[in-house]
Write a structure and sequence with these properties.
The structure is a single chain. 55% of the residues lie in helices and 8% in strands. It is built from 10 helices and 5 strands, in the order βαβαββααααααααβ. The protein has helices at residues 15-26, 43-48, 68-78, 82-89, 92-114, 124-142, 155-170, 172-177, 181-191, 194-199; strands spanning 6-10, 31-35, 56-58, 64-65, 210-211. The longest helix has 23 residues, at 92-114. It is globular and about 50 Å long.
Length: 216
């Protein structure tokens, strides 16, 4: 009898959960997805992570991973797809540094841009301008290659694109007219990617866990 898969507590629209699901899909890791309700977080999630944030992965041996990046790195390390493992390990140090810079230095500006009404000390465009400092850096990198760190997607691409997607949706008219052609090309490639389609499958909120959708 095959062992039970790991359990992933997730929320479809959360960019952190999104990047964890993307890595699990690309690395062909079989996990059961429990889509949570933000209004009624399951007891199992709160027991594993009292903060109640997602994603949270509970492995069959009881090990708990509460950070999206840890889940992504686990997916890569345990992947049986050697080509994908090599691809996502490419320039790992540079990828981790870029992700760290985004998550610690720039993600707060994205939050304030999206929820600017909660931060009335500055107008919305003030927060957008600060987050765009990071997007301009990505634009420059993409001007020299198809993906952020090479000719194929790396860990950095997977980890960052859900946040660029979130940024673009805050004011889609502004983003469509922004002088970021390479970034928009890159984002479009991800939005059309089969792994993203699988990633955004709707699981029943608060329902029984279901196996994570995979691609062929």
């Amino acid at each position: 009898m095959p062992p039970s898969p790991a359990l992933l507590y997730s929320f479809r629209r959360c960019p952190y959960a999104m990047r964890a699901r993307m890595a699990l899909i690309l690395c062909k890791k079989s996990v059961a997805v429990q889509e949570i309700s933000l209004k009624a977080k399951p007891a199992g999630l709160l027991a594993a992570n009292p903060k109640g944030t997602v994603p949270v992965l509970i492995k069959p041996n009881g090990e708990v991973l509460c950070e999206s990046l840890d889940i992504m790195l686990m997916a890569i390390a345990e992947s049986q797809d050697q080509d994908m493992k090599n691809q996502l390990n490419h320039r790992m140090e540079a990828a981790l540094e870029l992700i760290h810079q985004h998550d610690t230095g720039f993600k707060p500006w994205l939050d304030k841009y999206k929820y600017f009404d909660r931060h009335p000390e500055h107008p919305q465009h003030f927060y957008r301008q600060h987050y765009c400092q990071f997007l301009n850096r990505l634009e420059q990198q993409l001007g020299h290659r198809n993906w952020l760190l090479g000719d194929k997607p790396s860990l950095a691409d997977i980890a960052l694109f859900p946040f660029v997607r979130q940024f673009a949706a805050v004011d889609s008219h502004w983003f469509e007219n922004a002088p970021l052609p390479e970034l928009k090309r890159w984002l479009g490639c991800w939005l059309r990617h089969p792994a993203f389609t699988a990633c955004m499958h709707k699981y029943p909120e608060g329902g029984e866990p279901q196996l994570l959708r995979q691609i062929g």
